[in-house]
Design brief:
Shape: globular
Strand content: under 5%
Order of helices and strands: HHHHHH
Distance between the termini: 48 Å
Helix content: 55-70%
Number of strands: 0
Mean pLDDT: 75
Largest sheet: none
C-alpha cells in the first residue's frame, strides 16, 4: 500500500506539467486530410505520434496477420520514416535537427505511438 501511495505522489508532477488539452487533436479521416495540412501534422511530437498511429493502423488493415510485437516494430519504423522525411524536406519541428536527434525523436515518437494503441477511441482505425 505504501508503494502505491508513493507512486501516486510521484505522479503529481506529471499532472502539473502535462500538455495542455484545451485543443483536441483531430483524427484524420483519410490520407488527403494529412496531405492538405502536412505542416500541422508534423508540428510536434504529439501530432507525429498520432500520425504514426494512423499509418500503423492503415498497415495493420492491409497486413491482417500482424502480431502485437510486429505492430510495435512497424510503429517505430513508421515514426522513424516520418521524422526522417520531415528532416529531409525541412518541414515541421524537425527541420533543423541533425541525424542523431532525428533518430532519437523517431524512437521516442514510436514508443509514444505504441502507448496510444490501448486507447478505445482509435480502435476503429482509419478509412482508406
Amino acid at each position: 500500500m505504501k508503494k502505491f501511495l508513493m507512486l501516486l505522489l510521484l505522479m503529481i508532477p506529471l499532472v502539473i506539467f502535462a500538455q495542455d488539452t484545451s485543443e483536441q487533436l483531430p483524427q484524420p479521416d483519410s490520407i488527403f486530410d494529412i496531405i492538405s495540412e502536412l505542416n500541422y501534422w508534423l508540428s510536434s511530437t504529439a501530432t507525429v505520434a498520432g500520425l504514426t498511429v494512423f499509418f500503423t493502423l492503415l498497415v495493420a488493415k492491409i497486413w491482417t496477420t500482424m502480431t502485437a510485437i510486429i505492430k510495435q516494430g512497424v510503429a517505430i519504423v513508421i515514426a522513424l520514416i516520418l521524422m526522417a522525411a520531415g528532416n529531409l524536406l525541412n518541414i515541421g519541428f524537425m527541420a533543423d535537427f541533425n541525424v542523431m536527434s532525428t533518430l532519437a525523436y523517431g524512437l521516442v515518437v514510436g514508443f509514444m505511438a505504441n502507448g496510444l494503441y490501448d486507447l478505445k477511441n482509435i480502435a476503429r482505425g482509419p478509412t482508406i
